[in-house]
Amino acid sequence: MSDAKQRVEARSPRGLADRDAGELAATGKMLEAIRSVYELYGFEALETPAIEYTDALGKFLPDQDRPNEGVFSFQDDDDQWLSLRYDLTAPLARYVAQNFDALPKPYRSYRVGPVYRNEKPGPGRFRQFMQFDADTVGAASPAADAEICMMAADTLERLGVQRGDYVIKINSRKVLDGVIQAVGLDGEANAGRRLVVLRAVDKLDRLGPEGVKLLLGPGRKDESGDFTKGAGLDPAAVDTILSFTAGMQYKDGKPSFDLFGLLGKSDVGAQGAEELMEIEDLVRDAGYGFDRIRIDPSVVRGLEYYTGPVFEAELTFETRDEKGNPVRFGSVGGGGRYDGLIGRFRAENTPATGFSIGVSRLYAALKLVGSPIVSTAERVGPVVALLLDKDRVADYQRMVGQLRAAGIPSELYLGASGMKAQMKYADKRNSPLVIIQGSDEKARGEVQIKDLVAGARAAASIATNEEWKAQRPAQISVPETELVERVKEILARR
């Protein structure tokens, strides 16, 4: 068998992606900004495992179009089924139930980490992505929901999203239940069709009214030819739902629709509407206008466990992708009230509400609009010491050791290339400086320091190679004993 046939193809699994140093650094800045707002609101950090018992996660998954009910699952050696978490809320519910008596109530926590969905990958849809959640457990008041919405708005602005380029939209599952009753889908026998309806409406911003109309009715075939079965509603019921979700307008800062009138005589719908009005009053009193937080009954959220208000953070600006095509990102986060989720583990329900930011999706949006918080231009690599005399590795290691002891990230080039290639290596590493010491410099007890950033600026005005060699822009010789001090001075000017 030939060597070519023995090679394994280097490929990534569908729906998964690698992340380089630049993206990791930019994401790190995003996470710190989000964390700072969450902690400002009094939330504390919590970490839960990426793997949970499958029965602890429950059956609350969106778009169950894959085996294992949308999650990646496997059996342990004791025949217990385990699954990768599909969100950060279900593990929180398990943690709270497990530590209920020891936790303060309300319990305010935030979590960040990757989640996993065994779904069909596609543009903007990944099987692994990062979320950053904040939840309040043990507070039944709509004030807790209002606070979550205000925190979501503050977080987007801290991340550099300008006011007017986003909106936090709120609705209520109770309001949606009222509409469901109006079209005759209440009762346990219609539980499956209700879920199809909710997930169809949740795709309104992506598929538009015509696409949702097909999902509420006979079903829809997507661009790839895959068919999604619809809820099978009659045309009158479809029109009722679409007219409800399409009539949301604000005029002079006030809703122009009669939420109570749209719900008819539904008691649960009226209760949900009253809660929404209270949330709106609270956020307005706190100074958050309708341009930042508003009621929008088209918001559904795809997960089944929500029991009251639901929220969605939507980016409203339009930009263009690398090919020049118009892009509108839409939702980059959401959440809601889930008063029954912790009750799966306990005798009584526990009120809870929370919000999740889709970090990976928001990162892509901020990158397209050139937000400074995800810029990789400021990422600075280590100082690189060139390896010019291979029999003096110990000398070079001593120099970089002195720099590291002074808190300066540094490395010795450990490849086999010559000086020109080493300089290119330092440039690819985003190195601010290189340290150069050949045998002549060593004999004089000197070290040359080359400022790569200043050198690049100076070189732009030099016409010939001879001129460059004569000037050696931004390159200085210093006594070896002053290496650390002079490197610090140059970096401090940056």
Automatic annotation (TrEMBL):
Major subcellular location class: cytoplasm
Enzyme class: ligase
An example Gene Ontology biological process: histidyl-tRNA aminoacylation
Identification of the protein by name: Histidine--tRNA ligase
Keywords, ordered alphabetically: Aminoacyl-tRNA synthetase, ATP-binding, Cytoplasm, Ligase, Nucleotide-binding, Protein biosynthesis
Subunit comment: Homodimer.
Coiled-coil annotated spans: none
Record InterPro entries: aa-tRNA-synth_II, aa-tRNA-synth_II/BPL/LPL, Anticodon-bd, Anticodon-bd_dom_sf, His-tRNA-ligase, HisRS-like_core, HisRS/HisZ, HisRS_anticodon
Binding site for L-histidine: D87, L88, T89, R117, Q131, D135, R301, Y305, Y306
Recorded family membership: Belongs to the class-II aminoacyl-tRNA synthetase family.
Highest taxon, organism lineage: Bacteria
Ranges for domain Aminoacyl-transfer RNA synthetases class-II family profile: 29-382
Species of the source: Methylocystis heyeri
GO MF terms held by the record: ATP binding; histidine-tRNA ligase activity
Ligase keyword on record: yes
SUPFAM superfamilies per UniProt: Class II aaRS ABD-related (SSF52954), Class II aaRS and biotin synthetases (SSF55681)
